[in-house]
Every structure is written in structure tokens, then in C-alpha cells.
Amino acid sequence: MPLAGSLPCGPDYRLVEGARALGIHLAPREVAALRVYLEEILRWSGRMNLTSLRTPEEIVRDGFLDAFACAPLIPAAARRVLDIGSGAGFPALPLALIRGDLAFTLVEASRKKSTFLRHIARTLALGHVRVWQGRAEVFAVAPAERGAYDVVLARAVAPPLEQARLALPFLAAQGVFLAQWGREVMRDDVRRGLAAIGLMEASEAPTPSTLGKPGRLLVALRRVSVATGPECST
């Protein structure tokens, strides 16, 4: 059934039905929070280059639902999540709205985008979200951050192996890097490169084309060893 005040095929309906297809049942308060988030994205995008997603439908499909597709691959024992290059908050903020049991850290180099992320975290009362402005390579130098995260997220911040190298210093032993890549990325040479720095493919899940970006493949890469040498330096 459509939500009260929403159109049968409008963004709210697509959001609820899309989340349900992923096994996520959104409470009315979560839908309301996501609606506020969507409205703030559109409002802020009017004065800064916040995201390439321009319409409510794009934000729901390629932002919210694409983020929710990560949820099934988050390990049950996870407690701390890091998102590198958060931009407008995808995938971390939609996940934070439905996973209040996890502590999220969002790393974003842009001052303006970091300001937006803090604004959303305050507006939606996400006390389990913190935002750090700066480059991930600098953040990784802090002893308290190295090896401190059960899950690392990164959405199109760099080429695949570079993304993996950025994520690696933050991962705890057996921690998981959730990569949102196209199907064509997981070639044999990429798998060999990942294995060389201590990341092995643990599981994967395709994102239905009706819910996220066509051809998107979610890959959970588990840290199986502590790599050393220049290829994992930050």
C-alpha cells in the first residue's frame, strides 16, 4: 500500500517497495527521515555540486536503494563502519538510518560536502555518525583509526585497486571492504591484485537493475592478512 500522502508510483512508494525487495522493511519514521534527506539533497544541490543525482527518482534508485543493497553483506558481528569519500552521503547515511546499532565514520575531503554531511547527521539526529573532513590517506595515519573498522565502504572514489589500497589500512583483521563495482571490474588480474595486498573475495551480490545502477555488483572483500610494502602504503 502507498504511504499516506504519496503517489502510488512516486518516490516514497518506489523507496518502500525497492527496500522490501532487498529484504528491508522501512518503518514510517525511516521513510520520513529519508524524505527529509532527499529534500535537503535537492535544496543544497541548487547551490553546490553535491551529487550527479538530480531528481527524486534518481536519488531513490541510485542513492538510497543502491546503498541499501549493501546491507545484506554487512557481517553480523560488525560494529564500526567507515565510508571513504562520502560525497552526498552514499552509501553510509541511508545505511545509518536503518542500522542504529553501527557506528559510522564518514571521510570526505570537500569542506562544503562535509558541512552538508554534518547538517544531515544533526537534522536526522544520527548520533552514531561522525564526519571527518580530509583525505583518507591522512586519516589513515592516526593510530586510533588503523585497523579499527569491521566494514569499509567506498563508492567510485578511485580505480578499483586504488580503492582497495585506500580501504586496507582501516580494516580490522577479517574486516570486510564492501566494493560497489561494475561486473566487468572483477577480472582475474584484479583478483590477483587484491590477493596480493591481502584481500580475498568472500561473497558477492548483484544489485537488481530496477533498484540501483545497472550492472552494479557488490563484492565483499575480506582482509585475510596484513600486507606490507609500498603497494599498501597510504
Structural summary, described in words:
The longest helix is centred in the first third of the chain and has 18 residues, at 28-45. The protein has helices at 11-21, 28-45, 56-68, 92-98, 111-123, 136-139, 160-167, 188-196; strands spanning 80-84, 103-108, 129-133, 149-154, 171-182, 199-206, 216-223. Mean pLDDT is 87; it is low at 1-8 and 226-234. It has a seven-stranded mixed β-sheet, with helices on both faces. The chain has a single domain, classed as 3-Layer(aba) Sandwich (Rossmann fold). Helix content is 35%, strand content 21%. It starts with 10 loop residues before the first helix and ends in an 11-residue tail after the last strand.
Quick overview of this protein structure:
This protein has 234 residues and is α/β, with parallel strands linked by helices.
Name its key features:
disordered N terminus, single chain, alpha/beta, Rossmann fold, 234 residues, disordered C terminus
